[in-house]
Amino acid sequence: MANSTQQDAQPVCVAALYRFASLADCESLRAPLWQLCSDEGIKGTLLLASEGINGTIAGSPAGIESVVAHIRNWPGCAELAVKYSAAAVMPFHRLKVRIKAEIVTMGQPGIDPATNAGTYVEPGAWNALLDDPDTIVIDTRNDYEVAIGSFPGAIDPGTATFRDFAAWFERERGRLIGSGKPPKVAMFCTGGIRCEKASAFLKKEGLDDVFHLKGGILAYLEQVAESASRWQGECFVFDQRVAVGQGLAAGTHELCFACRRPVSPSDMRSPHFEAGVSCAACHGERTEAQRASYRERQAQEKLAARQGRAHVGAVLARTGDDLAE
């Protein structure tokens, strides 16, 4: 009985992972991976594509390590990038292992981040690029993410999804690059996957001096001392934390469960903010019938919480940057 109690008291281990690698037969990889996750009680989402693997999963620490070790045995996946965090309760309701065209959607053919990505920049060396007047720094995240924090001087493409990045670059290429010698370009995102793929896109477009922040903003906030940090604001994350700050400390933002955008303490004072129903950003995007449905969902979730059970329709956490568009 004591062992069971100790095991139940362990926090849930959450692992956000990705790796660009050439996976020739995703179907043959999918079934054993799904079975292992199922046997270990793992929940969450894993995406497989010919370009690699990406996902966020949760379970016991031992179960997660079994899955990570399994993936690292695949060709080209020994250096699988994994970011760990803990949750008090299981943040996902089910397990999904899916085969997709891309592990992060950009919609640009002929890109191969596994062999032609830009140069990794370790978090400790990132400030030097920020200070280099010959370097263009681009934030490859979506507009609502950039709105709550970024590096000073970084260009915000104002994109709604990652698939908009290529079109933005084509429109702005002349202004950014000009007719002279192409500058160095440094890019960053939350966990590293989007800027890594964007770097391969820019190299395909003919740029040679392309860099991306290894491990993304999360690695920077974790590894760079606050006294040296250039980060301003908070970093939006696609899980139960919503946003984090220096040292990955919990941020001040909450999540609007209607539109999945971050909501700051000042945003909550808006007359259009209603917990679980709407925020100032999405109030005009939804009908009253939709808001009525959200109110009913919110009421059901509150009832489930009072009864000490999980509401089956609730979304306790989203998958991370690795699944974001």
UniProtKB/TrEMBL annotation:
Keywords: Oxidoreductase, Transferase, tRNA processing
Record-annotated Rhodanese domain positions: 131-229
Known EC number: 1.14.-.-
Protein family (similarity comment): Belongs to the TrhO family.
GO biological process: tRNA modification
Molecular function via GO: oxidoreductase activity, acting on paired donors, with incorporation or reduction of molecular oxygen; transferase activity
Top EC group: oxidoreductase
NCBIfam families according to UniProt: PRK00142.1-4
UniProt-listed InterPro entries: Rhodanese-like_dom (IPR001763), Rhodanese-like_dom_sf (IPR036873), TrhO (IPR020936), TRHO_N (IPR040503)
GN (gene name): trhO
CDD domains according to UniProt: RHOD_YceA
Catalyses which reaction(s): uridine(34) in tRNA + AH2 + O2 = 5-hydroxyuridine(34) in tRNA + A + H2O
Lineage: Bacteria, Pseudomonadati, Pseudomonadota, Alphaproteobacteria, Sphingomonadales
Function text: Catalyzes oxygen-dependent 5-hydroxyuridine (ho5U) modification at position 34 in tRNAs.
Protein name in the entry: tRNA uridine(34) hydroxylase
